Amino acid sequence: MGEKPCVVLETQLLCESPNLTGRHKVLARVGGIEFSPGVVHITSDSPLSSTAIIGITAAGVLLIFFIVVMLIAYKRKSRESDLTLKRLQMQMDNLESRVALECKEAFAELQTDIHELTSDLDGAGIPFLDYRTYTMRVLFPGIEEHPVLRDLEVPGYRQEQVEKGLKLFGQLINNKIFLLCFIRTLEAQRGFSMRDRGNVASLIMTVLQSKLEYATDVLKHLLSDLIDRNLESKNHPKLLLRRTESVAEKMLTNWFTFLLYKFLKECAGEPLFSLFCAIKQQMEKGPIDSITGEARYSLSEDKLIRQQIDYKTLVVNCIHPENEKSPEIQVKVLNCDTISQVKEKILDAIYKNVPYSHRLKSSDMDLEWRQSRGQRMILQDEDITTKIEGDWKRLNILCHYQVPDNAVMALVPKQVTAYNSVNNSTVSRTSASKYENMIKYTGSPDSLRSRTPMITPDLESGVKVWHLVKNHEHGDQKEGDRGSKMVSEIYLTRLLATKGTLQKFVDDLFETIFSTAHRGSALPLAIKYMFDFLDEQADKHNIHDPHVRHTWKSNCLPLRFWVNVIKNPQFVFDIHKSSITDACLSVVAQTFMDSCSTSEHRLGKDSPSNKLLYAKDIPSYKSWVERYYSDIFKMPAISDQDMNAYLAEQSRMHMNEFNSMSSLSEIYSYVGKYTEEIVCALEQDDAARKQRLAFKLEQVVAFMSVES
User: Fold this and answer.
1) Keyword annotations for this protein (predicted)?
2) DSSP H or E run through 71
3) What does each C-alpha distance from 436 to 384, 385, 398, 420 come to in angstroms?
4) Could you give the CA distance from residue 146 to residue 206 in angstroms, rounded to a whole number?
5) pLDDT at 104
6) CA distances (Å), 604 to each of 611, 613, 615, 620, in order?
7) Which of 38, 239, 321, 646 is the most exposed place for a label (fewest CB within 10 A)?
8) Residues 351, 363: Cα–Cα separation, whole Å
9) Average pLDDT, whole number, for the chain?
């Protein structure tokens, strides 16, 4: 190879390459033969070049530097994590302490409040509404002065003709063939709204108040038709009577309203009123935000204050507004109550057993703080001392005025103050400042000067009012504000505390409603009669599923009448219902509805809090409902003779509660709107045609249309 010989052995040809590099010719000689197999290329196995060595060294240095930097960063991050962990641990410890305090307070309240509530309610008069007011609030909710309560108002020149027409129309209404055809025709009209259906049902019941036997017969026919239509349309039978989508359903509600008034007064009214008072009193034991309606104590998660509100209970000695010489009345208030809230609590205490409509109204009164040395000071929700921070204005509370415990208060007739006058642009800023100087504070002289200047209308534009909690829908909450809040779910323990306090009153009400004989009052005949009617209809249609029958009865009475009464006790009593009380009653009403259901409620972590709140109680309540329906089914059937005698008695008792002519006039307005359709329907009905009902209706229309 090259110029260097290779050693040739018998078994192999071994060539040791010369210490050369590059391309060399290989030459083989064997004896006299010489040949070249080719050229070999020899590479050098010397060390790396200097360029490569420098590159590798630089890369190594960079790698070491990166590792050192990473170690330093990791060390610093670890130190920060340790500090964060310690800070979180401290926050958790503080949170745990506060939660423990909340639970301890809730437990103490559970043990002490029930006795206090019960003792306060003992002997208190129940301000039942009279029959007329009660029925009007259920039949026509939200309408104070309905035409059916007063004489028919018709111009003198038309009065005789209109009265003749309405008397004829009254005869038609008392004709079952006409009335059924009239109702069915109205319901077939596309323009006949849900509101119209409810209104017509209520008007018909006011006309037939003196003829409840006839009204019951008509109602049964309408319900029978409704059941037939429901089953023919392949709807699930359980949906029957679920909603008020027909005249019959609203008439059924009104029928129970008429016939259960006596039962309410003699039996169910007492536990319902006790529950209302218990809720009201329990809510007022803690702060209630007068703007949002949220409260420290609530059954409703939506109306629960989810912030820590520091407050203190004060006792104020109140002078009777109508008799200053009578002994002062001690009233418990909170130092975070607004002035309006204090006035309401004082009026509640002074007029404890007086119907709400008969007592003085807080809006007509001013709260006067009577201090030592004859000094008197008017306290108001807003005055020249009201604090404004940015675009938020806070209502004045008792501690704003630094009212002490055992202060003497009096309610005096509303006065025109300088603040109100300034707001009405009737006095000058000078006179307002004079009033400001008259105000006396028990604090330091600087306390007045440090307060926000007088509010004027131009400054008030765009100002948002708050009491205890700012409404964060405005998006003005600062990140730092969250630090003062506890985790919202922690406050849900207060729902349990409130529920436990009110449990006895809820149980008493449910037990009274779902009992066939309670406190000496027998089951109203109307309930047995209507339940038997539903069972007859189920038999007629071969419906033997006990769940369907149970649901029909639940939709008929508990969900159609009792839920309405529980949610709206102001339909039965002369009381004022606040928004927080309304929210709590809605939770009770929902529990009542769940108790009447046959379906199983599967609860999970995402279930509404009101369902979780009573989850353990509902199985027990359901057993009460099932036993109630079973006991009614086992009772002897009521004969038509006995039922008619009962209905006749009820009609006599309330014969002249409504003005029938005014009611007929209101119903006739629908005849005027759909005259052609009603006349056409009467002409197509064989029974109506035999009695010439279409002609008689046209006579009515003629009388009512006469202008002179």
Assistant:
1) Coiled coil, Membrane, Transmembrane, Transmembrane helix
2) helix 50-121
3) 7, 8, 18, 13
4) 12
5) 63
6) 10, 12, 11, 20
7) 38
8) 16
9) 81
Compare 92 and 148 and report the one with higher pLDDT: 148
How far apart are the C-alpha atoms of 387 and 407, rounded to whole Å?
Answer: 23
| Cβ count near 389 (within 10 Å) | 9
- Return the higher-pLDDT residue of 423 and 25: 25
Q: Which two tokens stand for residue 566?
A: 């529980």
Helices (H), 557-597: 563-567, 579-596
Question: What confidence tier does 253 reach under pLDDT thresholds 50, 70, 90?
Answer: very high
The distance from CA 424 to its chain's CA centroid, rounded to whole angstroms, is: 37
Q: Using the 8-state DSSP alphabet, how is residue 468 labeled?
A: S
Task: Please tell me the predicted confidence (pLDDT) of residue 180.
Answer: 94
Chain-centroid distance, C-alpha 560: 18
- List pLDDT tens digits, range 520-551: 567 889 999 999 999 999 999 888 888 989 99
Output the pTM of the full model.
0.77
121 class by beta-carbon count within 10 Å (0-12 exposed, 13-18 middle, 19+ buried): middle
Predicted local distance difference test score (pLDDT) of residue 480 = 43
* Cα-based distances in Å from 346 to 158, 289, 666: 53, 18, 43
Q: What pLDDT, on a 0 to 100 scale, did the predictor assign at position 256? A: 94
HSE (side-chain half, CA atoms, 13 Å) at 216: 23
Q: What is the DSSP letter of 16?
A: P
Beta-carbon contacts of 398 under 8 Å, excluding residues fewer than 6 positions away, are 314, 333, 334, 335, 336, 337, 339, 342, 379
Sequence spans of domains, the chain: 7-42, 313-415+456-466
**Does pLDDT of 121 surpass 90?**
no
Give the DSSP H/E element, type plus range, for residue 332.
strand 329-334
Residue 251 CA, chain-centre distance (Å), reads: 27
Q: Which of 38, 147, 187, 159 is nearest to 706 (CA)?
A: 159
How many other C-beta atoms are found inside a 10 Å radius of the C-beta of residue 275?
Answer: 24
- What is residue 251's predicted lDDT score, i.e. its pLDDT? 93
Tokens of 300: 């409703």
- CATH tag for 313-415+456-466 (out of 3.40.50.720, 3.10.20.90, 3.30.1390.10, 3.50.50.60): 3.10.20.90
DSSP 533: H
